[in-house]
Amino acid sequence: MDIFDKINQDLGSLGRYSEEAHGYYIFPELEGPISNRMKFQGKEKIVWSVNNYLGLANHPDVRKADAEAARDWGMAYPMGARAMSGQTKYHEQLENELAQFVDKKAAYLLNYGYQGIVSIIDALVDRKDVIVYDSEAHACILDGMRLHIGKRFVYPHNDMEKLEKQLQRATKITKETGGGILLITEGVFGMAGDLGHLDKITAFKETYDFRILVDDAHGFGTMGEKGSGTGEHYGVQDKIDLYFGTFAKAMAGIGAFIASNDQKVITYLMYNMRSQIFAKSLPMPMVLGALKRLDMIRTQPEHKQKLWDNTKKLQSGLRKNGFDIGVTESCVTPVFLKGTLAEATHITYDLREKFNIFTSIVVYPVVPKGVIMLRLIPTADHNDEDIELTIDAFSKVKEKLTNQEYPKEEFAKFST
Fold this sequence. Notes:
By secondary structure, this protein is an alpha/beta fold. It has 2 domains: 7-47 and 302-402, Aspartate Aminotransferase, domain 1; 60-299, Aspartate Aminotransferase, domain 2 (3-Layer(aba) Sandwich), CATH 3.40.640.10. It is 40% helix and 15% strand. It has a 7-stranded mixed beta sheet with strand order 4-10-9-8-7-5-6, sandwiched between helices. Strand 5, helix 6 (139-146) and strand 6 form a beta-alpha-beta unit. The longest helix has 19 residues, at 302-320.
């Protein structure tokens, strides 16, 4: 069959709804400065769908640093990959400051988070090695493992008993192959908001020989007393072999990093990660902008405090009003409802058009069939009015859903 014919017959699990959903439910366009209130289709909405945790995206000090860096350096410098012609003292400074902030000896700056995790996994393991990973690992982790030609074992989400059994299986295999074990989990799981049990996982190192890679995209800058991540929250940062953080959430930027207490491992990754060796260096405005953001995280704890104040108000308010927000222990706030995909579109439409609330909708296959998840990301920019209006709106749409006032089969129509 011709490849294009195959695609035309099946656009994929989400693509099949493109005609009904494009531009509204999928690929919506938010306009205006990044904040708690933005415009959608010309009308102001309370926005809960932007990972701007600390409110730094449109902070005047950040905007000033970004603008000055772009003025002084342009968006092209440095040209070429870092290994060839794209190395600067500022890239190295950012790496050193990131390593220090997350209590590691060394760090390596990455152009992108998703691409970075894929390439880290590819570089770390070979056919003799075994990967053990959580069943709810992010898509970037799954894609990285697809490049691994050795064994990989999954354990049910945060099930420590099943994890130990998989470590036992992996240990038996690596004794035969002479390879090692890489355990991969997340610090904060970005959909449900619960935490990887890093304290219990690292405790297994007393019995089993493995290395642990923690993807802490949602924990970096938000978890722990100083914001250095979920490992700090649990008090086990020193037991994490490879710590990964991204700039796309708390840092409100582009880029990522991998850090370790083993300098040789970081050196190895610098010389063997194909996605970095064969890619252009991160442009200077992004590097200098990241330095500014990191400095603000270190020296201005009020941003994280405001984030958590808003998070606690939002989550406690939702619980008091009878909403199921699962077992979140982070700022990620899921609201679980029961209904069909069509009902989910009507709920989303009502929230946006009647109540001016913009939040992400998550449906099957990300969550089980029959489950609707509305995913809220509180930020330091939100206020009490935002929270009160949102809880009130959610209560009203939940009542309509309970009373079966939404069509179960027909998508909510929208106009652009």
